[in-house]
Amino acid sequence: MAGVSAIRVLVVDDDPLVRAGLTLMLRGADELVVVGGVADGADVAAAVDAHAPDVVLMDIRMPGLNGIDATRLLRRRPAPPHVIMLTTFDADEHVFGALRAGASGFLLKDTPPEGIVEAVLRVAAGEPILSPGVTRRLIAHLAPEAEDRRRDEARRLLSRLSDREREVAAAVGRGRSNADIAAELHMSVGTVKSYISRILAKTDLDNRVQLALIAHDNRL
After folding, report:
1. Which of 2, 23, 115, 158 is deepest in the core (most CB within 10 A)?
2. How far apart are the C-alpha atoms of 55 and 34, rounded to whole Å?
3. pLDDT tens digits for 72-110?
């Protein structure tokens, strides 16, 4: 598919069978086009330069440069692609670090094909995905000794927000979609998007997944 409106996807995984399976599955969606695949995080930057993907499906564990470090490097670039992390286990201890590095969410590798396609579409539209079950596991695996520091940092960032902005941030922290937030707070979806953009600018965060983590740290 070569339509200009297609969402361009780069697949990064050290397992050639996983890369092939993801590529075959994604190519079955009319809205998506797979522009390339690489086996190591060290090759991601060159692949992004060559193919200009909108979304990168990134394995966390790779023998060379891991997905967290590759994501962190990508997020430093101007207009970086969105990154969805891929992991085998929902209790992967690296997932939290991946989200802190700027990933827009993560998926288990055994997620049904329609779930992966939906995640790519949502992330490309600026609405990263993180399931409630995964959120609970992430919170449970946070290091207790870092809790006070994280809460202090969350309070510092959220103190920059108005009361209404804090309401929106709290809804994002509960995993609400833009449409859900609009209905809950009696505003339009466009207004919700404007609020989220303003919140991210005020808090120096990259995306709403990081905002959700900050909201959880502050127990909103």
Report:
1. 158
2. 10
3. 888 888 888 999 988 776 555 566 677 777 888 778 777
